[in-house]
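Model it.
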Amino acid sequence: MAKSSKLNRQWWFRLHSWAGIKFSLLLFFVSLTGTLAVFAYEIDWLLTPELRVEQPLEAHVRPAGELLAAAHAANPSWTVSSLNLGLPGFMAAEAIARDETGELQRIYLNPYTAEVIGVARWFNAHRFLRQTHRHLMLPLKWGLTIVGLLSIPLLLSFIAAFPIYKKWWRGFAKAPKSGDTPRRWWGDLHRLLGVWSLPFIALIAVTGLWYLIERWGGGAPSATSLLPELSATPQPQDAASLTPAIDKALAQNPGFTLKRILVSEGKPLLLQGQDSALVVRNRANTIALDAHSHTVAGQVKGEQLSAHQRIAEAADPLHFGTFAGYFSKIIWFVWGLAMTILSGSGVWLCALRLGSRRKGPNPQAAWRLIGHSRWLQLALVLASLGLTLPFIFA
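Modeled.
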């Protein structure tokens, strides 16, 4: 019986090692970019002076119509398509627009004065991290499929960890000891990070699998599909005149927090944000506004969504930890770092096992153990970085 149990544990260990090592390069890269993407806007805040604003002690955000008007006035020949009001108070409001050549640009506005601070290119750190993490900068269909497929070995590795690590719950307090051998120290670190990251790994694997299902036909209808059939309505030339219409719509929905406005010529204005439904994208709560007649043309709330749609709208907030502001984002960032280290420490443990006391770890043998897929994984990582260069130097 003991022998059978040992063989069973060895089988699970081989599965855990196979799933963790054979896909380690791509898992490390995707984990790292996803972890940094949690604070993508904050990274842009550091890199882009135009994104920084001084938040007054008594902060009163200017009406959205005024901000749209300022964006239009600063660049009359550009076509503004959206206004992002959901950034932290120390960041500018952000309008997305197409210039005369059709290129996307960002217009930064001080949300407290409605003054245009500056303009920046659409491609920034936020886009780089999101696009490399989501689809490796490859065509969406295939890139997202490759990344989504990583959820399978991640899920297998998660499942296999339980039969391998007996009484795993004791590992929460078992930290590496400074006097241990490198192999034991890294092993203890791997187990410690793994135990603390169990809920996060399961969540990332499940949401990653959901993105794959979505990509190949299992997605839910968008929340905005519940809006009634809307007729085309002309937008006023003066965007500031939208303020009364927006204020009226928000007054009718006192629990609604406006995060984003979508502007499309000849179509109703879409106000998106957060309401009483928990853990949903902003688009799950949408108010369609006839900006010409100043009336609400249609509305959908998160509570109206089907179970299928609620799953779809919860995927992003759960995957990136944006559902509770900085509280959840910090936790997700720490968990993401742990998962990234786990992707690398598993291979390093393998190098230590394949090494010797005299010569130390054997990285070459561990590299070969990844198998022929290492070249494909390395090529995908390099291709992802290489495809970024045209955007950087455009």
